[in-house]
């Protein structure tokens, strides 16, 4: 048995529960001062006041520890869950980024041969080893931000061979570094050039050939689709997601980002695990998400910021009793960042979220968005020992020290994996 004892934490701040939090309940953060956390074999066994935890350990006759961390002067929060990323790819698009900043729209760039297809070309040329090295480097960046669980999508192959290569590399990365990776197939990221005038033919390829291969090799848990203007419409998205669910996949959606095609409505009706982006979501769709209560609304403020778009209506979603998560959308086009401090700054200052709501959105609700809330997203007995030490004594410094990474240490599955 391996164990870890953390004592004298100035403040343990965590949402509580094993399911997503809806609406104003997102602001309910449990605070423990002079706190302690006791971990055995990667699982939290005890949480509470330091003197109470130490007394219980003495009663049980536990006095030997593999590691003891005195966290005086520090706050501890759950490990962050970045529940929407495209971090595995080859090729950068700096010229495109500058064109967008200068006024070109996402669709203009895409129609001129840029956008997703530009990264597809580079990723198709990359070997598994090259992709693995790139992915490992980016995951290391995330650990330093306090991320302990991340969702990773394919979607830069758009053909059978490269999509499977991306998914296999994601599987390898999941076993070769500390972070847990929730793996998503996003072949429906765009219509590839070879199917430029035949979206129906590409859908048929995904449904009849690629999805069964992914299921047979157990390469992904989720299937995602980009339901938006110039990509896949409502009916096409529904066809793909129904086929995926029939094969036993859980489903996610890129919805209502560029235009409103009622993607959030489809997500609610099909009981998608998450509906992501939602910049153009309608009030009627917000009501549907609230009534169904099955789908996490995952908002991606860094993308709206980089695209110079309006932000998704976080306040309306929360006040309507929806469950909201926050994620980076880390990708080489519209959000080339995995910055947790930037997410927090934008969510609080631009989206009118409280710091308690933000913490829940980046932890417990993020975990729910990758179907992992039973084991992750909060500091509670029975949950995975994934937590982050801050260099300040109060979790609100995550917002107050604006735009600065205040992570001091990261514990993943009861092991110290990063220290600054």
Automatic annotation (TrEMBL):
Zn(2+) binds at residues 84, 86, 254, 329. GO terms for cellular component: cytoplasm. Its EC number is 3.5.2.7. The keyword Zinc applies. GO terms for molecular function: imidazolonepropionase activity; iron ion binding; zinc ion binding. Residues 76-417 form the Amidohydrolase-related domain. It catalyses: 4-imidazolone-5-propanoate + H2O = N-formimidoyl-L-glutamate. Its main location: cytoplasm. Pathway: Amino-acid degradation; L-histidine degradation into L-glutamate; N-formimidoyl-L-glutamate from L-histidine: step 3/3. 4-imidazolone-5-propanoate binds at residues 93, 156, 189, 257, 334. SUPFAM superfamilies: Composite domain of metallo-dependent hydrolases, Metallo-dependent hydrolases. CDD domains: Imidazolone-5PH. Binds 1 zinc or iron ion per subunit. Its cofactor is Zn(2+); Fe(3+). It is found in: Cytoplasm. Keywords: Cytoplasm, Histidine metabolism, Hydrolase, Iron, Metal-binding, Zinc. Fe(3+) binds at residues 84, 86, 254, 329. One of its GO terms (biological process) is L-histidine catabolic process to glutamate and formate. Belongs to the metallo-dependent hydrolases superfamily. HutI family. NCBIfam families: hutI. Catalyzes the hydrolytic cleavage of the carbon-nitrogen bond in imidazolone-5-propanoate to yield N-formimidoyl-L-glutamate. It is the third step in the universal histidine degradation pathway. This is Imidazolonepropionase. It comes from Liquorilactobacillus cacaonum DSM 21116.
